[in-house]
Write a structure and sequence with these properties.
Radius of gyration: 38 Å
Distance between the termini: 101 Å
Mean pLDDT: 86
Structural class: alpha+beta
Strand content: 15-25%
Number of strands: 18
Largest sheet: 6 strands, mixed
Low-confidence stretches: 655-690
Helix content: 25-40%
């Protein structure tokens, strides 16, 4: 029995030895995984960063290019510095910086790995020290590129590239990025990051035990080459963009120009702007530039073209004209409305007006009554309140179908939707009122005021819809990508809820606005311009000037929206800026007449300075008012203070305390009251006696 058990045990041990031997054979001979791990101690994987794709404008001008730089990396265990001062002088650093980097490079297991020592050394500086680097053991240059912007324009659209941070690394579920990689942080650089970034390569170098490079590992069998990012072809016309930024100098606002037949954005201007080269690369200077832009009270980093929301003002009247035509609440030829200025005021013009003339003269009472007719239709509910809810919802849906109050789908991040109020919105606003909201609460919507807010991009798209007589393409900034097509969304027609037959009348009215209406300053010799002015009330200062237009009237080439904040009437400032942009795009030059009568005046206008001066004067006036108010109230304030004052010394002395009434006889310790010369508390040694 025991003999059999002995053989069984020996057999089991033998089987275990055989299995263990087979495993060792597999690990050490048949597969290379563990052998490669062992050899990896002397093998360094050097990343080879791809060149980001370039960005061109619609005419082939280079908007974004790459500039070579070099990162200098060190391995703490191998780094040999023979002369510290000479080493610091070579890299233009101080000894404190050197000690900081060395302590990090020699911490724990990090001493066996590469550590970044100098970031983004310029090609000129690298060429100066290149010959001396080969004498320094443990130091490795890594070629990289940073972005540069040859035309110094379109900062709000291009965005910028920065080194990836921990937050974005945590969001990278595919684990593509590594610490130190560059990534698009805003604008097109962020929207088209996957196309622009390319694909990183790796180069394996074998080192001997002395740290000397012995060439590529296994002849480069495991090396991979970097793949350059795809080039982008933007729809922006760089010449038009630069001209628009020039016109908007010293102004706060936005300009958006669109090619109606394609939805391609020709210019996207947010003012004030900045030179995108200020945020190119890394380093202390770039950090200071970013902080400076961030702290600027005029917010140049805020993309007003797609993020600022303002009531559209009278530019909204063209949408209500289309709604009225679609619902048949007004006869386009015989229907006339008188300019009865109750409850809304107006400016002098002929009266009564038909629909086309109402656009030309921008009559407020006309559109107040038209709004009421649209909303108060009989929808067969038997309740006027319910009919008004349906009517306002219908009005809301028409507006949204025209691209207002919602995101359009632009290929830039952080597009704002704006707001077109609906019955549900007012239900929330007036939820504490038993009777809820009424039309008398919302009639300011009829003239583009009240709670509604639109984005400049939406207003430009509205002009494109009218130019196209009822449809649009989703506005976009990229018209072509190397080796692939743009998203089908940007190649598909989007139709509105308004029948195409109604747009000609509105376009005719907009032509009359420029010919003999509120926007005569927008006239261009030889080009029939259609437009609509808007003057938006601003409770914080001067009104905002707005203008939407397209040209020519037939076969339009450009649709545009301009908003100039704190400047005044729409026809005074926004309209001439739009006309100059149209003339520049269609004729490729500005006539002498336009230069004298429009351009010079626009370039000289400085609304930022004027606003600052107005704000300063207002602060002075408010301060003087507060001082005067205090002086007027000073006697009453003094009396109140006297009433609330603490007891004086005389009042304390008059206070009589009958010691006999106390439960035990104990001398009182005099109180030391504010503004009183009463005796201080007794010394602590005397207090102990009691």
């Amino acid at each position: 029995m025991y003999e059999a058990r002995k053989y069984i045990i020996q057999f089991v041990i033998l089987i275990g030895i055989i299995i263990y031997a087979i495993k060792l054979l597999s690990v050490q001979v048949l597969t290379e995984e563990h052998r490669l791990r062992a050899e990896n101690i002397s093998i360094h994987a050097i990343p080879e960063y791809p060149t980001r794709g370039l960005i061109y404008d619609r005419t082939g001008k280079l908007l974004v290019s790459n500039q070579p730089v070099y990162d200098i990396e060190i391995i703490g265990r191998k780094l040999e510095i023979k002369d510290t001062l000479a080493f610091c002088e070579l890299f233009s650093i101080d000894t404190a910086y050197l000690h900081k980097k060395l302590s990090k490079a020699n911490y724990g297991l990090q001493r066996f790995k590469r550590t970044l020592f100098i970031k983004q050394l310029s090609a000129v500086d690298y060429a100066r020290i290149q010959d001396r680097l080969s004498d320094i053991r443990g130091l490795y240059p890594v070629p990289r590129t940073i972005r540069t912007y040859p035309l110094s324009c379109f900062a709000s659209g291009l965005g910028y590239v920065k080194e990836i941070d921990q937050f974005m690394l945590d969001k990278d579920t595919l684990n593509y990025y590594k610490r130190g990689d560059l990534i698009g942080r805003s604008g097109l650089e962020a929207s088209y990051e996957k196309d622009l970034r390319g694909k990183r390569g790796v180069h394996y170098i074998m080192y001997d035990r002395l740290g000397i490079a012995r060439g590529a590992y296994k002849g480069g069998e495991y090396d991979t080459l970097p793949e350059m990012g795809r080039d982008l072809h933007a729809s922006i016309d760089a010449e038009l963009q630069i001209y628009g930024e020039k016109l908007m100098q010293n102004k706060i606002g936005a300009v958006v120009a669109i090619e109606p037949s394609t939805g391609e954005i020709l210019a996207l201007i947010s003012a004030p702007t900045y030179d995108p080269n200020m945020l190119a690369g890394e380093g202390l200077e770039v950090s200071r530039n970013f902080a400076k832009l961030l702290q600027d009270p005029n917010k140049p980093l805020f993309n007003r073209a797609i993020q600022s929301t303002h009531p559209p003002g009278s530019t909204f009247k063209v949408t209500e004209a289309l709604m009225a035509l679609e619902d048949g609440v007004i006869d386009p030829q015989r229907g006339r409305i008188s300019c009865i200025q109750d409850p809304i005021g107006c400016h002098p013009h002929p009266s009564p007006l038909d629909l086309q003339a109402s656009i030309q003269h921008s009559c407020n009472p006309f559109y107040y009554r038209l709004f009421m007719q649209i909303v108060r239709q009989d929808f067969g509910t038997g309740s006027s309140k319910e009919n008004e809810r349906i009517g306002l919802q219908r009005w809301h849906d028409y507006a949204q179908s025209l691209g207002l109050g919602r995101k359009l789908g632009l290929d830039l991040p952080n597009e704002k939707p704006g707001l077109i109020p609906s019955p549900a919105y007012y239900d929330k606003v007036y939820k504490n009122r038993p009777q809820g909201w009424k039309l008398s609460n919302v009639y300011s919507l009829s003239i583009g005021q009240g709670e509604m807010g639109t984005v400049p991009l939406q207003l430009a798209n509205l002009a494109a819809i009218i130019a196209n007589r009822g449809y649009y393409y989703v506005p976009h900034l990229i018209k072509g990508i190397a080796e692939r097509e743009i998203d089908s969304l940007y190649r598909t027609k989007q139709y509105t809820k308004i029948s195409p037959k109604h747009f000609d009348l509105v376009a005719n009215g907009m032509a009359d606005v420029v010919r003999a209406g509120t926007a005569r300053r927008a006239q261009i010799d030889g080009i029939e311009v259609c437009g609509k002015t808007g003057t938006v009330q601003n409770p914080h200062g001067e009104d905002h000037s707005i203008f939407i237009s397209f040209a020519p009237k037939d076969n339009p080439k450009i649709a545009i929206a301009v908003i100039v904040e704190n400047s005044g009437f729409g026809g005074t400032w926004a309209a001439p800026i739009a006309s100059l942009m149209i003339e520049k795009y269609i004729n490729r030059e500005i006539s002498e007449k336009s230069q004298i009568h429009k351009e010079k005046r626009i370039l000289e206008a400085d609304f930022i300075r004027q606003k600052a001066e107005r704000d300063a004067r207002k602060r002075v006036r408010d301060s003087l008012k507060r001082v005067q108010k205090y002086r007027n109230q000073e006697p009453e304030i003094k009396k109140e203070k006297e009433k609330k004052a603490l007891p004086t010394e005389l009042q304390v002395q008059d206070l009589k305390i009958n010691m006999d009434t106390l439960p035990y006889k104990r001398p009182m310790i005099p109180l030391s009251l504010p503004n009183s010369k009463a005796a201080p508390l007794l010394p602590s040694d005397n207090r102990k006696k009691y």
